[in-house]
Amino acid sequence: MKHKISITVNGAVREAEVESRLLLVHFIRENLRLTGTHVGCDTSHCGVCTVHLDGEPVKSCTLLAVQADGRSVNTVEGLEQGGKLHPMQAAFTEKHALQCGFCTPGMLMTTSALLERNKNPSELEIRQAISGNLCRCTGYLNIVKAVQYAAEKMARPS
Amino acid sequence: MIPAQFDYHRAGTLDEAIGLLTRYGTEAKVLSGGMSLLPMLKLRLGSFGHLVDISRIAELEYIKEEKGVVRIGAGTRQATLERSALIKSKFGALADALPLIADPLVRNRGTIGGNIANGDPSNDHPAIAIALGTELVARGPKGERTIPANRFYKDLFVTDLKVDEILAEIRIPLPPPRSGSAYRKLKRKTGDYAVAAVAVQVTLNANGAIERAAIALTNVGPIAIEAVEAQKSLVGKKPDEKTLTDAARLAAKAASPSADRRGSVEYKQEMTRVLALRALKAALERAGGK
Known about the structure:
heterodimer, A: Ubiquitin-like (UB roll), DNA polymerase, domain 1, 2 domains, five-stranded mixed beta sheet, globular, B: 290 residues, alpha+beta, five-stranded antiparallel beta sheet, 11 helices, 27% strand
């Protein structure tokens, strides 16, 4: 069975005809060629496939593309606005919050969504928020620092 | 990993979803949050000809208090429950459990109805529903019927729901004064299922003796287990150390775990005992007993 779907991806309406079983992450990577969203464990544990669905972080490997029909999806490519890095991306750079970088897109999507909901999260809240995103380099310390730094920057943009 | 072929159907209303289930019978599977179903399909542990997506049915997402009962729409997300002041203030067991279910991203999609109706003994809501005296409302082509949570589970992944029925609502009675509930869960890491977990609700009488006790166990048998003997042992007694220790031992006896990479049978039974004791103490403290 084929479905005509229309998804607003990073602000642009994208239309396609997809099979029922096509996963959202494959639609994003293979149909739209937005390869910033990664596939890791493929069983909804690691979080590298995290995207925003109507603003909420979700694991796109565990969602069908057809389920996102009519909704808005933001990927890591959508964080940068007008050639300017999102404060979270700038903070990850500043605080060296990545080593191999494989988990980074998912981390950015989860933590940017966290700051939308909670402007000033505690260290515990940050750690809980990223508990569904695995960093195999175990770079959590700098990731937490980056989120704190981004929260400060967003509260007081210099 | 890519699931085997199926046809996806998005239901706009509950009646439409029931109509689709009636049409496709055993070939159909309800898709709610999909947090268990999609991994299962991807791993090819199961396959269905038709998925009936109920996740866009607005009438299935609500939390309301009415006449001494908290009514939760089956499509309510775990994250919504986690943020609900009503849920947190009335049901300590749910306040304990919700932050420990899967991970925050999964809780943004996963629903309480899916967690209960999936019939997976490693899910947390079944035992909690049993301990809180929850009633489950099933809707089918002939209308509505109510099933007590402790009679809902028949076997591993087998529930009382008929093929054309959908779990529509979860009804949790507000506990009487001097009640408290708690959930204690041991898991190896975020995102893992419980090694074992125990849900407890207790009610004390005016003299501080236990008037009513409910204890249910997660992931130590083919279904969520109501620890009936442990419950009975508590009624009418003052909650002293010996009473609680004995009840925890009886709760562990009710467990029938199997050995896997989360531990041996003996380990899981012992953890059930420890968690039962901790959950009992926490529930009693919330009931004002200690």
